[in-house]
């Protein structure tokens, strides 16, 4: 990736913001099941395990699919991939709408599986955004693009309200329509950076090559905690709040809380990228992981619903957002230029997988007698603590040398 003169990169911010809009739309579709989980649970008569599987299925597919979409982006570019993912996910939204209308759990799971395609959109934007900015500003570029995860907040805030206001089916028709419009906008207005050149190498060897890089595994583990924690809370927080605080929080209230959580993480993500550019990604990543561990412990204590609970979840969101921005500030710097998409895809997949297991764990470890998810939250404390230790042990210069060797 040869960096052209600054003049050749004019319009970079506009292109990254359009990519962010595409990501926002994909995230809205990807996370459209979680805000309605209580309605599904009631109408379909679901137990804890079934709810957890319903919430986790789109996350799994969205995670694994990022490996492929990241590698394909190196070859086809962001414009084609954003358009294909948005249009390709429209039938999934309609399938979920059909499943909910017919009250068929197995069809809802199938629709959620397909809906995971929309979640792969993130792996497209990292190489696309990185190509528009010089290395010293890629933490900022990826932080801006990462704000597309605000689509989770859009879904949390709008989806239950739309379902109540215009109806369940019409809500999903609206989501599908927005996806078509944004896909058209991307196709006609998005363009590749002058510094980007397609990589014609077959996809499988590129993925294998990315898996051979130590930096891929190091960043994957750390990102599985940061982004995985964000995805896990984004899918499970409404369920958590309506279970632990059933008298104080209803489905719409839980959606509002989730929207606030996501917005806090979205605001924090570019801050994490900027801090990584200025102070070093290692320091900022370690600080965020320490904060995640402490805040997970606070939440595990199940403080009374109110200011303390709200502040704890908002602080958790900020810690996760800063961590996401800092960790992906490393990737374009350390990965070989022709493998940024492949490495980004694997790391993004690890982040998604990090969000797949916690909802299942939370459902499995829920103590009905004491109405507590403490054990699941303690597992987050331990995991974040281990990630903190490993982050502190990483030697940035050595990791960079290994990555480019």
Can you lay out the helices and strands and say which pair or pack?
Blueprint lengths: L11 H19 L6 H8 L3 H29 L1 H25 L2 H11 L6 H10 L6 H9 L3 H16 L2 H22 L13 H9 L2 H31 L6 H29 L1 H20 L6 H28 L5 H26 L8 H20 L2 H9 L1
Helix pairs in contact: 1-4, 1-6, 1-7, 1-8, 1-9, 3-4, 3-5, 3-6, 3-10, 3-11, 3-15, 4-5, 4-9, 6-7, 6-15, 7-12, 7-14, 8-9, 8-12, 11-12, 11-14, 11-15, 11-16, 12-13, 12-14, 13-14, 13-16, 15-16
What does this structure look like?
This protein has 405 residues and is an all-alpha fold. The protein has one domain (6-404): Growth Hormone, Chain: A, CATH 1.20.1250. It has 17 helices and no strands. Helix 3 (48-76) runs parallel beside helix 6. It is globular. It starts with 11 loop residues before the first helix and ends with a helix. Mean pLDDT is 85; it is low at 1-8 and 396-405.
On the 0-100 scale, what is the average pLDDT?
Answer: 85
Cα-to-Cα separation, first versus last residue:
17 Å
Which CATH class is shown? Mainly Alpha
Order of helices and strands: HHHHHHHHHHHHHHHHH
CATH topology: Growth Hormone, Chain: A
Structural class: mainly alpha
Query: Which homologous superfamily in CATH is the superfamily?
Result: MFS general substrate transporter like domains
What share of the residues does DSSP label as strand, in percent? Answer: under 5%
Overall body shape = globular
Report on the biggest sheet: none
Tell me the count of domains. 1
The rounded Rg comes to 20 Å
The number of distinct β-strands equals 0
Low-confidence runs of at least 5 consecutive residues: 1-8, 396-405
User: What share of residues is helical?
Assistant: over 70%
């Amino acid at each position: 990736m040869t960096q052209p003169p600054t003049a050749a990169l004019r319009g970079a911010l506009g292109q990254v913001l359009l990519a962010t809009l595409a990501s926002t739309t994909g995230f809205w579709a990807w996370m459209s099941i979680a805000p309605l989980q209580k309605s599904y649970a009631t109408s379909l008569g679901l137990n804890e395990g079934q709810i957890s599987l319903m919430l986790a299925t789109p996350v799994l597919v969205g995670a694994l699919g990022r490996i492929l979409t990241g590698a394909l982006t190196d070859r086809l570019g962001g414009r084609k991939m954003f358009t294909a993912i948005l249009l390709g996910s429209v039938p999934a939204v309609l399938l979920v709408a059909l499943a909910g209308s017919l009250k068929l759990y197995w069809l809802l799971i199938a629709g959620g599986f397909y809906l995971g395609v929309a979640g792969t959109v993130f792996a497209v934007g990292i190489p696309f955004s990185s190509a528009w900015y010089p290395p010293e500003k890629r933490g900022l570029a990826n932080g801006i693009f990462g704000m597309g995860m605000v689509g989770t907040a859009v879904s949390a805030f709008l989806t239950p309200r739309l379902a109540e206001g215009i109806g369940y089916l019409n809500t999903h028709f609206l989501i599908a329509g927005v996806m078509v419009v944004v896909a058209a906008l991307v196709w006609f207005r998005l363009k590749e950076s002058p510094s980007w050149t397609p990589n014609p190498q077959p996809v499988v060897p590129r993925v294998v090559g990315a898996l051979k890089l130590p930096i891929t595994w190091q960043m994957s583990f750390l990102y599985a905690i940061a982004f995985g924690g964000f995805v896990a809370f984004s899918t499970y927080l409404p369920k958590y709040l309506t279970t632990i605080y059933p008298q104080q929080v209803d489905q719409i209230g839980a959606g509002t809380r989730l929207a606030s959580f996501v917005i806090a993480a979205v605001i924090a993500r570019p801050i994490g990228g900027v801090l990584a550019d200025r102070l070093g990604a290692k320091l900022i990543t370690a600080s965020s992981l320490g904060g995640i561990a402490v805040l997970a412990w606070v939440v595990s204590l199940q403080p009374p619903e109110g200011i303390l609970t709200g502040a704890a979840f908002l602080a958790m969101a900020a810690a996760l957002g800063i961590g996401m921005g800092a960790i992906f500030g490393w990737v374009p710097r350390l990965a070989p230029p022709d493998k940024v998409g492949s490495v980004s895809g694997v790391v993004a997949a690890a982040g998604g997988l990090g969000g797949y297991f916690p909802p299942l764990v939370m459902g499995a470890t829920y103590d009905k007698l004491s109405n507590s998810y403490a054990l699941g939250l303690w597992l987050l404390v331990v995991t974040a603590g281990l990630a903190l230790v490993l982050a502190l042990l990483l030697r940035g210069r050595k990791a960079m040398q290994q990555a480019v060797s």
